[in-house]
Amino acid sequence: MKTLTSTSSRLLASLFMLVLLFTAACGGKEGTVESVNMLYGKDSKTWKTDKEMDATGDKVSQSDAMEDQRVTFYANGQYNMMSGAQTMNGKYTFDQGAKTITMMPAGAAQSNMFTVVTLTDDKLTLKGSDGSELRLEGE
User: Class of the 37-138 domain?
Assistant: First the structure.
């Protein structure tokens, strides 16, 4: 059996570290909150429900209506939420520094604030004040 020289060992270790760093860098971007234009794309962007988690982290069984739920964010600060035959419109504000989005349904007296856990080109995770999470995918 051939033994490795110290130069070969260092080269092998360096290659291993390079592969490890590359894997870590290319891994999921969960927990990354990118710029607000990821939320609405160029003019508007539609997000569909991927999964919902309760406050304890358990997956919530989704009804057909929940699976069909879509929310579209527009560059002008408006949003439209559709779930089956129901539609809700309103305004939103996104605070990049605080990583929050506040949604005010039209005609409602109270807004809803969510922590933005992840915002990338294709993933949006919103956390409610009760700890529940809604994970959305870009369409």
Answer: mainly beta
